[in-house]
């Protein structure tokens, strides 16, 4: 497993990490979560991603309990949470990045985890109503008070990220260090084009999400929706059309020829592909079982064999050149 600096910060994160969206608290109980985390950790993963909103707070509770069961040194892992949607009803607690919400949401998250501090905190989306100054000052204070060590954004547009950096710079505040965007073979524009200037200008790091496009790139949807898969879950109907899209599944079938020549699975190929972008600090993988984690972690080794010839073949299949 390789370790990359998170953007220009000194923090090193494993090139593959593990997140808990959909899975912890919905498909995976505490025992299976701890097992999945242990498989990842043993493979070299040091970063675990979470969010306040995942399973209404249950995902943070499960991960916190898993950390205790596993008994790891706090110094040996990096844990994140993300804030914006809120989990309590109220005009100041939903879809906001105001100061009142952020301070109480981070405190409540620490309680659920049973931790003294989070390593990374993210503004889970941008908030068009709260002035960016208010959010930047609050994130700075959360870092200055050691409730978190680094802060960043998730799915902000380039202009919003630029504004946040510049406010922080002007007022000598802790700057955002990382962004968490979607990035996979079917979703490239933001990371490869829109953010292009931000890597050099601000040293922005990336913790990217959905390397398998929610499972599509594993090939499991080629012949329909398998029982128990994400697309079959109640509440995730909105994903079904994209996961069963015939054109995308045709490309996945073609990608299988590349995976076969690399002697790896489609999932390993798709995850390894994400690590090849030098601006990606860590690829957050997701898994509904420890077995999937075991398979996916091999992607770190596959990445060492995924050379330019294979990358060109993949681009050709995806239709990017
Ligand atoms: P993926 O795109 O990799 O999808 C993971 C899902 O694909 C698994 O839960 C599983 O679903 C299926 N899968 C995984 N491995 C395999 C395999 N080897 N074979 C077959 N199926 C497999 O990642 P996620 O969408 O889960 O995102 C990863 C993480 O990124 C999240 O946990 C979260 O931490 C973060 N994230 C952040 C977001 C943000 O807005 N900042 C948004 C979304 C995610 P199943 O078995 O149920 O079909």
Describe the structure.
InterPro entries: K_chnl_volt-dep_bsu_KCNAB-rel (IPR005399), NAD(P)_OxRdtase_dom_sf (IPR036812), NADP_OxRdtase_dom (IPR023210). Keywords: Ion channel, Ion transport, NADP, Oxidoreductase, Transport. Belongs to the shaker potassium channel beta subunit family. This is Voltage-dependent potassium channel beta subunit, animal. GO terms for molecular function: oxidoreductase activity. This protein has an 8-stranded parallel β-barrel with strand order 3-4-5-6-7-8-9-10, surrounded by 5 helices. The longest helix has 16 residues. The protein has 13 helices and 10 strands. Helix content is 42%, strand content 13%. It has one domain: TIM Barrel. Helix 1 packs across helix 2, helix 1 packs parallel to helix 11 and helix 3 runs parallel beside helix 4. It starts with a strand and ends with a helix. The model has no long low-confidence stretch (mean pLDDT 97). Strand 4, helix 2 and strand 5 form a beta-alpha-beta unit. The protein is of the alpha/beta class and 321 residues long. The structure holds NADPH dihydro-nicotinamide-adenine-dinucleotide phosphate. The site of NADPH dihydro-nicotinamide-adenine-dinucleotide phosphate has 31 residues, from strand 10 and helix 11.
